[in-house]
Amino acid sequence: MFVTRVHSIPFRNILSCWNARLPSALRKNPLRVKAFIIALVFGMVVACQSLGALPRGTEILWDTYGVPHIYGKDARSAFYAFGWAQMQSHGDLLLRLYGQARGRGAEYWGEKYLESDKWTLTMGVPSRARSWYEAQNPSFRSYLDGFAQGINAYVKENPNLIDDSVEVVLPVKGEDVLAHLQRVLHFTFMVNPEQVLGISKQKSKAGSNGWSIAPKRSASGNAMLLANPHLPWSDLFLWYEAQITAPGIDAYGASLVGIPVLNIAFNENLGWTHTVNTHDGWDAYELKRFGDGYMYDGKVRPFETKTIELKVKLPDGTLRSEPLEIKSSVHGPVVTQKDGKPIALRVVGLDRPGALEQWWDMARAQNLSQFQEVLRRLQLPMFTVMYADREGHIMHLFNGQVPVHSQGDFKYWQGIIPGDTSKTLWTKIHPYQDLPRVIDPPSGWLQNANDPPWTTTFPLAIKPDDYPPYMAPRFMDFRAQRSARMLDEDEKISFDEMIEYKHSTRMELADRILDDLIAATRKSGNEMAKRAATVLERWDRQANADSKGAVLFATWAQEIDFDKAFSKPWVERLPRTTPDGLVNPTDAVALLETAATKVEKAYGKLDVAWGEVFRLKYGNVDLPGNGGDGDLGIFRVINFAPSKEGKFQPVAGDSYVAAIEFSKPVRAMALIGYGNATQPGSRHATQQLPMVAQKKLRPVWRARDEITDHLEDRKVF
């Protein structure tokens, strides 16, 4: 088959060309000429394959939502095609992210990337990426090379479709993929400069919902899975939806842009999603200086010091150089100072280079036993794993590389740790069997909304007292309570109901506290407060586009101190009904007066509709919004930021969403709210945003006939 076309030139044209150049004796025997050319082309193909070139027979089918369905002749071919596909959809972004992962953003694009470069280089990302690359399984290393080659080949064939400014990153190499992985996982998700400079381990807006529903609680008798990460709608947090099919794999899901494997996925037999878990994978150590060194176990140790030359591109195109001195202790690099004392950072997982291969093999697994065998490698530094499969199993794993500590509880390790003794220096992580995990609980359902593993289901299936006190904290916020409530109150959940629940904008906080607030206002509020109470009485307690009262309530909630507002604080023995009650009704009413004044001044009325204020404005699209902040107990999370004229626009929240039922065949619906492309001119940027406004998902096409029925483009390699 492969000899019928060479670089899209028909065989008869090759024959004519060669006939003109062959001796007359050969020209008189066309069969000999044909045999000669076949042998020659066969030899060229074999030679190219031995040099790592892409085998023939690989293609990308693009559906009408811009989702690439990759069919690889082998695994390496699939990686090549995935690199190509990501460039077609996100090429400018991908190359910029790879340039930053090298610690050369300022050199390529100027001063605005200087702090990012300093962080990346101080953390040793580029040098570690090179060692990680050498440590890869040889076959998987060739896959990374294939992904990089797909990136490079796309630009070579489509130079006018990529911004000139980012082409400086080319050529991309396999080690660039691993540098990007580290920058995303270890030095953004797990720890980032803002946390370190403020020495804060407070939760970021990166979060997720995840559900696993067993057959006993499913209306169809099939297990179901809900994947629902909440990430920023920009930069390295963007999801890319795809299907990858090659020998040994047929998986559908999403990866973060620049990652060559699916991070959340399902196949015909099983699937998983991730949530950001309450995992402590880094610690800040305060060092005691002594001369040019630091004290450790009663002795003076010298800092390891090296200097890296940073280059910064100036507006005129020239480069300036400046030195970056990096000091490290036995704990890790010194990242800041507090009260004049150096603070060193220690991060888990920097000696575990196999995360990408683990994700790849998770997607290749066909049952729970195989899946757990892959998980036992513990190459992923963090993330809860929520799992379901065709056989009806469901699982929640508090996954991560958890340091083994000799002392302290979770709160202790959230602070600054004394660095002058080896007693506080962790050197090992807990093995897989030590991690909180539940399989097939009696309840028939599992949930995680970034709460600790203890509250994944009820009755409790994982008891916190069975684990070290530093494993995870103990709390359950309003979004997690809302999540558990919806699952627990429905004995038989249908696929359509799961999607409906996924879009729930009901505020658990309002259900908990609104009646008390209205009663207190009727008793002691002024005229403004009582008008506000009337609006709140009529409100549906949701954050839908037409909900009137939601803006007022959310404005009031911003005024209160969640840690001090409730007469009954959260208690572990009542995890789903506390906190409750107003500790100071008079103060709560006064804050309602303040909130009402703000709303009326900004919008001219107290009962302004939620969608009039909170807009789904992204790119050139501007639609009435729904959903809101998870702190309000909303399951459908969309985080809004101030825009113009008192309006708000989305910056984070619901990103990739997938609802999966393990029927025969698998049934799935999905959505990427901001679209599956960012390249200028792509019609797939913002294409799916109207469905966010409508609270809908779209069908997932996995079978080849479905894909060809909705085919937009085809690329054959």
Task: Give the integer mean of the pLDDT values.
Answer: 92
Strand tally: 33
The description of the largest β-sheet is: 10 strands, mixed
**CATH homology group of the domain at 508-626:** Aminohydrolase, alpha-helical knob region
- Judged by helices, strands and strand pairing, the structural class is alpha+beta
CATH topology descriptor of the domain at 508-626: Penicillin amidase (Acylase) alpha subunit, N-terminal domain
**What percentage of residues falls in helices of 4 or more residues?**
25-40%
Could you provide a short overview of the structure?
By secondary structure, the chain is an alpha+beta fold. It contains 21 helices and 33 strands. Helix 4 (75-101) crosses helix 9, helix 8 (138-157) packs across helix 9 (174-190) and helix 15 (508-524) packs antiparallel against helix 16 (527-538).
Overview of this structure, please?
With 717 residues, this protein is of the alpha+beta class. Among the domains are: 2-50, no CATH class; 508-626, Orthogonal Bundle (Penicillin amidase (Acylase) alpha subunit, N-terminal domain). The chain is 33% helix and 23% strand. The chain has 21 helices and 33 strands. The strands form eight sheets. The protein has a ten-stranded mixed beta sheet with strand order 22-20-19-10-9-8-7-4-3-33. The radius of gyration is 28 Å and the shape is globular.
